[in-house]
Write a structure and sequence with these properties.
Oligomer: single chain
Strand content: 5-15%
Length: about 500
Amino acid sequence: MVNKYTAPSKSFPTDRQLSWHEELATYVERFGEYNEDGTPIIYQLEHIQREMAQWYVRKNNKYFDVEVPGESLSRDDVERLIIQRLKFAFPHQNLSQDLTRQLLQVLIRDMFVDPQKSIPIWSGIRRSMPGNPRKLVFSPHLTATINTWRVPPFRQLGISRADWGPFEALLEFMFPIEEERDMITFWLAWCLQNETDKPGWAPFLYSQTKGSGKSTFALIAAKLFGEDNSSTENNVSKLVSRFNAPVLEKKFVICEELHIQPGSDKANAVKTFITERHTMTEHKGHDVQQVEQVCAFIFTTNHIPLWLEQGDRRFYVIEVNHDGHRFGERGDEFKDLVRETLEYLDTPENLAMLYNALMSLKIPKEFDAKSLNVLGESTEVMRSIQGASWDLNVELLEAELNALELVAIPAHLLFDLGEKLANPKVNVMKHWLLNLGWKREKVKWGKKEFSRVIFLRPGYTMRNRTIIGPDGWQTTPSSNANNDYFGDFKREKLVHVEAS
């Protein structure tokens, strides 16, 4: 009789055990490598030791996995993991427990040992070093930097043939204007041909309709750079956050639905990341580091980016406008072309041929990936954005300043002025004022004995707490401690005076 409180014993594995075995088998049961004559490859101990030394780095008596350097590991953790990894990495090696202990002794504990056979000291830096297949790069002081770049598998197939495949037809469908199609194609080819470098501007794909192929183009570009070397973000929040290092450690970054305020900290940060090679990054639990980044960016949005500042040279905006979008007349045709292209590029050999086609593409000398000629290379939508940005924002501000007859405005009164203009950001208004030719000065007025920021209309200055204008006009702002009104900074009949 079976005790009702005791489960019957089984001589075969349970479903949970089978699942556990199947999951681990991928990592602990591997067919070893063989020579051409069919004999198993047996590695020398020196080779094994050097291979082991590239699996982990150490810092402050803690250990980190080179592939996933997140949480720190203890020495006991690392030793247990290495024992299991040895079985997978070298399945034909008959490593006894004694020999394994000796390898671990040299790798972790011995101090007087060849640095190639010991887990190295980590500098704390991770960065993408395209073209370098080594996982660790050493400084002259022998501290190790983790290289986050990985050779895409399709590039190791030895494919030499070049073929655009259906990608060429996709480009023609998505970008019917030849000049725009050439610009984005040359940009992509330049980034691949100069992978160790970074471009000075980024394509910005815009369309009001969904299903126009923006994300598809970005996805194909990510495949060409290598999925391990690419990152897709839903917006710029991670890119501009404090712990943005994982994003900037990639070669290629896609930011979907970019929308930020001009002149804001986020806008300035994004511009810096697009153009500057060196920046400060931080990982959670690690110190801030200055690193070199070689990111190439692509941005997408379904909303026209009217927030772009006039003359901005960091974004090449293309309106992806065709009748193959989700509700267009050629929607089915475009959908089939997208599916055909993605299925085609799912085959590594085909992806390698497209990569070769872009690598062999001759880029015209006049194309400049470092600097965007806004005047000569603006798209129609860029010209519309620039016009709208000036007309709707700066001119409205100018009209309001004239209506209030202001010749100066203290920085703290920008909030009050903003209420009359649908509450734009103060930083944005600052840029608009500078665009209108107003000067920013830091001076004293009233009873305050410390300097304050004030913006002055062109032709006006402030000396000895007095605002001085053309024709000998002058006014001294009130000594009122609060000084929270526009009256002290007006000139009556200003428009009439300036017109005359």
